[in-house]
Amino acid sequence: xxxxxxxxxxxxxxxxxxxxxADVWIVDGRVAPAPDDPGIRADRTxxxxxxxxxxxxxxxxxxxxxxKVNAARxxxxxxxxxxxxxxxxGGRSGVLGGVPSTFTxxxxxxxxxxxxxxxxxxxxxxxxxxxxxxxxxxxxxxAFLVLMGNHHYVLERVRDGDxxxxxxxxxxMLGATRGFGVKVVNPGGIERWKQGYGNVSTLDDVVEHxxxxxxxxxxxxxxxxxxxxxxxxxxxxxxxxxxxGNWATTLETMKVIDGHRAHLAHIQFHSYGGDPGNLAAFDSxxxxxxxxxxxxxNLTVDVGQVMFGSTTSMTADAAVGQYLHKVTxxxxxxHDVELETxxxxxxxxxxxxxxxxxxxxxxxxxxxxxxxxxxxxAMSTDHPNGGSFxxxxxxxxxxxxxxHRNDTLQRLPDRVRxxxxxxxxxxxFSLSEIAIITRAGPARMLGMAHKGHLGVGADGDVTIYAPDxxxxxxxxxxxxxxxxxxxxxxxxxLRTWPEGRTLxxxxxxxxxxxxxxxxxxxxxxxxxxxxxxxxxxxxxxxKAVACRxxxxxx
Length: 554
Prior knowledge:
Layout: E1 3-13, E2 18-27, E3 30-32, E4 44-47, E5 52-55, E6 57-62, H1 67-75, H2 102-111, E7 114-122, H3 127-135, E8 141-147, H4 152-160, H5 163-177, E9 181-185, H6 189-195, H7 214-228, E10 234-237, H8 247-256, E11 262-264, H9 286-294, E12 299-302, E13 309-315, H10 318-328, E14 333-337, E15 341-350, H11 355-370, E16 377-378, H12 392-400, H13 402-410, H14 414-419, H15 431-446, E17 462-465, H16 471-476, E18 480-483, E19 486-490, E20 493-494, E21 502-505, H17 514-524, E22 542-545, E23 547-548, E24 552-553
Parallel strand pairs: 1-4, 1-5, 6-7, 7-8, 8-9, 9-10, 10-11, 11-12, 12-16, 21-22
Antiparallel strand pairs: 1-2, 2-3, 5-17, 13-15, 14-15, 17-18, 18-19, 19-20, 23-24
């Protein structure tokens, strides 16, 4: 039995209503009550007096593994020249760039005080290589969401009204791929675009050959996920991403979900007013969307904050990749995945003098500041689409300091102030609210009851920060990161690289439906159904995240 004591820090644990000086004990990797016997001593004590203690960060939406990430790495060799990381113990090294190597990704998340990251879009056929990349990504716990919103089996079951087989397929596929949840990207739109008919633009456009609409696909998948009781609700990348006027479709999408849970990803990219035909004339429509979100607790969002600088766009919405290629003139890669999805990869540079990019920046910050309940909004840059996860400390500084935010806003083109309400928002986040949007809230959204807090039984994932008036510096340089009770970041130095765990859902599958699923895949897929299931040996310290009927995390 190993005991770690974190003594006398300012503990900020909003999930348990704690905001004050307290001790945190970690025994055998989990948070434990203080021992009743005062004679029991810790194996090590960290003196945290004068420091801020939080649970380690949880990233609800990022892209850190899979074929899309590797395609981006191969596409941008110029991004990695001269960016080598120092060698670690055992000769390990890595590179940074806009899409860091696997090893660097784990080390850099840990260096920000994060302990968990969820890749938001893995095609079923890409599950195995994604898991092997997870094995090479140290320290943090990992999970991924499985793309299902354009899968031919799903579309046929929706068309036929076969809800039982739809649920059986979701459960079987999550079990086979060891996925954590269901990701829906532009439901039906990718399949229609791949057929050559062009993208969908409304929820009621019909997908040729299947005779279904995005409204039907989304509604049935949300229902199925809830009835299966998965820990995380359906995770949605909606229609018309990045197009002026898309806010109306986003609002209608929120209404389609009524009665079920849903998480809307990178909401900043779906909140634009204006005319779809005039990219330069769009404006912010965060206010009505945030008002609807405030009134509907079944919905949560992550922001997809745009940050200025060079990055790489990668999306399972391949039509968006083609669109970005056309408007930017940059190189483009389109990657097709049979039965389910595509992927578009495009380098992009967000410039503060570009009115469109600057307005996207302002719209993202509006989302954080307009949503009344911080438990409904999570921090994200949609890494790397809006920018790197390494920008999180910059975002925190902007949220906590109105003067800093307004100084930046004043440097941007005049039309940004005219077409967004950011300048009128005086709200400044507290440390407790930062803890909610970066750890407690994302953990709750994901249904990870053992993450994001410091209550008894929680994973012993803890970050300790030195207070600093410069909040960007404070959150860029944590003093300690404890991962499952092991001190990884020790007085500012990264000392060890534990493997972390792979988290996955464990739904109960309907074995009576398996012959039908197997027959479909045997006929339509290039991988035989018997080769889909992952084994424990292919995962890093696998841990199932159980759930209860109705979607309540166990």
